[in-house]
Amino acid sequence: MKFRLDPFPHVSEALLNSLLNARILIFSIVVAKVMLDRLYKYAVIVNPLGYDTDGEPMLDILEYQNPTSANEVFYALNSYGPKGRQAYLTYLLYDVVFVIARSAPVIVVCTWAYKKAPAAIRPGAWIPLLNMFADLFESFMLFGLIKAFPHRNHVAELIASYVIRFKWLTFQITLGVMFISLMVGIYYGFHGLLADSVVMERERQQKVAAREQVQDVLNRSAARRAAAGASERSEAVKKNS
Fold first, then answer.
1. Spatial contact of 50 and 57, defined as CB atoms under 8 Å apart
2. CA distance 164 to 66
3. Domains of the chain by residue range
4. Is the per-residue pLDDT at 231 higher than 80?
5. 151-203 pLDDT, tens per residue?
6. Taking the CB of residue 15, how many other CB atoms lie within 10 A of it?
7. What is the 3-state secondary structure (H, E, C) of 143-211?
8. Sign of the CA dihedral with 215 first, then 217, 221, and 224 last
9. For 87-123, what is each residue's pLDDT tens digit?
10. Which of 90, 101, 129, 145 could form a cystine bridge with 32, CB 3.0-4.6 A?
């Protein structure tokens, strides 16, 4: 069995073939941008103190933090108050759409650049997919915790803290894969241009050689006709004399 970075190459290929469409990508990017604007709007409602030093709203809520225990999750949800928790529920609905929409271009970037690379080093789409599913599961966990509030479930809160950290780990790996993919795309794109230029030069030389062969045949044919004409004229002169 050969080593592969991508344990699901057929899934990656199917996703790339499905998503590598200009309309789908543009639609996904537009939807992701609209959802991101909504996320900023509701994040400020969840946490009214979520502004940066320039007074701009920022995503300073639980899922953008790094909770390490069940208590941190519970205290964060408790600090938002009833209005903030209600806004968080709406935020999570928009977040689900955002995660699905932004995953389409991410998957394309992480797979398309490696089309010409050896199969063993293609990372495939499984890391972006893992990050997407972790993000969606995180939203599901937080939605359930908020709905059950103020009743506590220590196990669910602890799992939510692990899922949040795992989501950020896979997100960072996904960003790394995207950066490497851009470099790989540039590398193989440049070498593809060189290969195309070599092929074009070879075809040009073949056309020149073929043209020269045709011209040589025409020249020989003309020479034979000229020689035949001269011979006929010489014989005619001899007969007349």
1. yes
2. 7
3. 9-196
4. no
5. 888 999 999 999 999 999 999 999 888 888 777 666 666 555 555 555 566 77
6. 22
7. HHHHHHCCCCCHHHHHHHHHHHHHHHHHHHHHHHHHHHHHHHHHHHHHHHHHHHHHHHHHHHHHHHHHH
8. positive
9. 899 999 999 999 999 999 988 888 887 776 666 667 7
10. 101
Whether 16 and 122 have beta carbons less than 8 Å apart is answered as no
pLDDT for 12 beyond 80: no
pLDDT tier at 26 (50, 70, 90 boundaries)? very high
CA contacts within 13 A on the Cβ side of 38: 19
Contact 50, 44 (CB under 8 A): yes
The tokens for 199 are 């092929």
Helix, strand, or coil here: 135? Answer: helix
End-to-end CA distance of the chain: 92
- Name which of 112, 123, 231 is nearest 170 in CA terms: 123
Please provide the DSSP assignment of 32-62 as one string.
HHHHHHHHHHHHHHH-TT-B-TTS-B---SG
Identity (one letter) of the amino acid at 237? V
Alpha-helical (H) ranges within 113-153 are: 126-148
pTM of the predicted model as reported, rounded to 2 decimal places: 0.71
Signed CA dihedral, 40, 44, 45, 47: sign only: positive
